[in-house]
Design goal:
This protein has helices at residues 33-40, 48-75, 94-114, 131-150; strands at 88-89, 92-93. It is mainly α. It has a domain at 33-117 and 128-150.
Length: 160
C-alpha cells in the first residue's frame, strides 16, 4: 500500500501576504501592490517579487514620458502629482487615477508578456498567441492614460 499526499492548490483569490508599497520618486505617488492586483485582476499566482518587478518596470516606462511634465509642475510650485490642480472624480484627482491606471495596465502587460500562461484559462494554456492582442491593448490603454495626463491627443494623423 502506498500513500501519496497532494499539497492543497494555491487559492488565487485569497488575500496575499502584506506587500509593502513601491516607493516612488516623491512627485509621483507610491504604488500599493494590493491595489494594482485588484485593479488589474492579477491573481496570487504571481509572486510579490514578480509583481513588484512589473510595477517598477511600469513606473520607469511612465517616467520617461512624464519627466518633462513633472519638472514643469514642480517648477510651477506643485510638489506632487496630487497637488497638481485637476478635476476630482469620486473624491480623487483624475491625474492620480490616470497614473494608477497606467501603472496597473503596464504592469499587467509586462506580466502577460513574460509569463503568457498566467492570464489564460486551462483551455487556453496552449493559445499563448491569443494574448498578444491583449498585451497590445493593455499597453495602448496605459499610453492613453499617460497622454491624458499630459493633455495630449491620443492619435496623430498626417496626410502623406
Amino acid at each position: 500500500m502506498s500513500f501519496v499526499t497532494i499539497p492543497p492548490a494555491a487559492d488565487v483569490d485569497a488575500p496575499p501576504a502584506q506587500e509593502p508599497p513601491v516607493i516612488n520618486d516623491g512627485f509621483f505617488p507610491d504604488v500599493d501592490p494590493a491595489g494594482i492586483r485588484d485593479a488589474a485582476r492579477i491573481t496570487n499566482t504571481i509572486t510579490p517579487g514578480r509583481l513588484r518587478a512589473a510595477i517598477l518596470g511600469a513606473i520607469m516606462a511612465i517616467e520617461i514620458d512624464m519627466r518633462a511634465y513633472a519638472a514643469a509642475q514642480i517648477a510651477a510650485g506643485h510638489a506632487s502629482l496630487a497637488a497638481v490642480p485637476a478635476t476630482q472624480l469620486d473624491g480623487r484627482s483624475v491625474q492620480l487615477i490616470r497614473y494608477e491606471r497606467a501603472v496597473a495596465l503596464y504592469a499587467k502587460a509586462e506580466l502577460i508578456a513574460r509569463m503568457p500562461d498566467f492570464d489564460t484559462t486551462g483551455a487556453g494554456d496552449n493559445r499563448a498567441d491569443e494574448t498578444t492582442p491583449t498585451i497590445g491593448e493593455l499597453r495602448r490603454d496605459a499610453m492613453h492614460a499617460v497622454r491624458d495626463m499630459l493633455g495630449k491627443t491620443r492619435t496623430t494623423v498626417d496626410l502623406i
